[in-house]
Write a structure and sequence with these properties.
This protein is of the alpha+beta class. It folds into two domains: 1-28; 34-139, Ferric Hydroxamate Uptake Protein, Chain A, domain 1 (Beta Complex), CATH 2.170.130. It is built from three helices and eight strands, in the order αββαββββββα. The chain has helices spanning 2-26, 60-67, 130-142; strands spanning 34-40, 48-53, 70-75, 78-84, 87-88, 94-100, 103-104, 119-126. A five-stranded mixed sheet has the order 2-1-8-6-7, with helices on one face. Strands 3-4-5 form a three-stranded antiparallel sheet, with helices on one face.
Length: 143
């Protein structure tokens, strides 16, 4: 009887260790899948490219933070990227924008999940969005 208990205990331990290692493996970076991150600093410095490990559920902002020094700032309901590697946006003049696999962003980087992304490009260019955020805040204040 004690031999049977030992066998059951060993089998149970083996099965539970497989379950634990399986759930751990789901949340670790994939060894084969990477996301290419390109950062275009405009005329301020040469562009650079890096690879970030792919992790399911990671946002575009979190991917950027693995390859660059990033500063953010909350603006109303948004969290805006204000600086990448010390290159700071100037409200109304220059700002950071991103594209995923060649397509312009439809969401703010902190809420865009990068699950299917292969290439994320950040570009420092003319600010065309601050007025949109400002006008939404003005409308809310005016009501």
């Amino acid at each position: 009887m004690s031999r049977m208990v030992k066998i059951i205990a060993v089998v149970a331990l083996f099965i539970s260790s497989l379950a634990i290692s399986g759930s751990w493996a789901d949340n670790r970076p994939s060894d084969s899948k990477k996301i290419v991150v390109e950062i275009d600093y405009g005329d301020l410095r040469p562009s650079r490219t890096a690879e970030a490990p792919w992790i399911e559920g990671r946002t575009v902002l979190e991917v950027l933070q693995t390859v660059a020094i990033v500063e953010t700032h909350p603006v109303g309901q948004y969290v805006m990227v204000t600086s990448i590697d010390g290159v700071k946006g100037k409200r109304g003049e220059m700002a950071w924008y991103y594209m995923v696999d060649g397509k312009s962003a439809e969401k703010i980087a902190y809420s865009k999940i990068a699950n299917d992304a292969e290439h994320i490009k950040w570009v420092y260019k003319k600010d065309v969005c601050s007025w949109k955020v400002d006008s939404q805040n003005t409308l809310k204040e005016g009501n």
